[in-house]
Specification:
By secondary structure, the protein is an alpha/beta fold. Helices cover 38% and strands 13% of the residues. The chain has an 8-stranded parallel beta sheet with strand order 3-4-5-6-7-8-9-10. The protein has a two-stranded antiparallel sheet with strand order 1-2. Helix 6 links the parallel strand 8 and strand 9. The chain is globular, with a radius of gyration of 18 Å.
Length: 285
């Protein structure tokens, strides 16, 4: 499982492991166990968020894993509803306290809009305020890197026009069947590393006959093909699971997808999220 030892370098020189563990939908009382299991398997990149309600458990897993803190990369996200400086600054300190850690490796603004107005109104000023709070926490050594999530090009431009530190990461919904190629190219051009959440498309893609046929050709599982695809795009891949067997399988991606197959996956349109379509990020806005 070589991939667990591979990293990307962020624009500030901080190294981030290419494969991480997503923790959305893992309950707080089960998060510590999931995190310690992942770390024992070899994962060093753990992703959570204030909105997940499991920072306490994730922090406990990191602290009790038996692996030194400087070997682990922990990300969390500022709640999407927070769009002013003072609330953002306070929420960063709250995350540190809830996690029980003295620093966070990466903190993101979870969304350019509050979830109840996703892709809706204009929060440009509020995003600049929240970003300024992240910059100050970064300068103070509380955060080792800072970024955004679910930001489109115009959302990023708004930050870039006012920031002193360029976002180092943009975490997006990227998977075979949903590849925002123009936004991917824009971020690459700005030296903003992409992270792919839901790289397995919340499971709906498991039934796609074209994907299954391709996975069979490579003698891998559909999740392995999907994770490998996001890695070959140059993104951090963040599959979510609390199942140790799935954690192991998700890291067995030591194969190469051929260019013509990458092109096919990149151009696919398959956005069936099943029961998860109720969430704003999957609603097609």
């Amino acid at each position: 499982m070589m991939i667990l030892e591979e990293t990307y370098a962020l624009s500030n020189g901080v190294h981030i492991p290419k494969l991480g563990l997503g923790t959305w939908f893992i309950d707080d009382d089960k998060a510590a166990d999931a995190v310690t299991q992942a770390i024992s398997i070899g994962y060093r990149n753990i992703d959570t968020a204030q909105a997940y309600g499991n920072e306490r458990g994730v922090g406990e897993g990191v602290r009790t894993s038996g692996v030194s803190r400087d070997q682990l990369f922990l990300s969390t996200k500022l709640a999407a509803e927070i769009k002013n400086y003072d609330r953002a600054a306070a929420a960063i300190d709250t995350s540190l306290a809830t996690l029980g850690l003295d620093h966070i490796d990466l903190m993101l603004i979870h969304s350019p809009q509050p979830w109840n107005d996703f892709r809706g109104g204009d929060y440009a000023e509020g995003n600049r305020e929240a970003w300024r709070a992240l910059e100050d926490a970064y300068q103070a050594g509380k955060l080792r890197s800072i970024g955004v999530s679910n930001f489109q090009e115009h959302d990023l431009e708004n930050i870039l026009q006012a920031c002193t530190i360029t976002p180092q990461v943009n975490q997006l919904l990227i998977h075979a069947g949903n590849t925002p190629t123009e936004l991917v190219a824009y971020c690459e051009n700005k030296n903003i590393l992409l992270e792919a959440y839901s790289p397995i498309a919340h499971g709906a893609i498991l039934q796609n006959p074209d994907i299954r046929a391709m996975a069979d050709r490579y003698e891998v599982t559909v999740p392995q093909l999907c994770i490998r695809y996001t890695l070959q795009l140059g993104a951090v891949s963040l599959p979510k699971t609390a199942n140790p067997e799935h954690m192991r399988s998700n890291a067995e991606v030591d194969f190469e997808i051929a260019d013509n197959d990458m092109d096919m996956l990149r151009n696919m349109q398959a956005q069936d999220y099943g029961e998860h379509s109720v969430f704003p990020v999957y609603s097609g806005k």
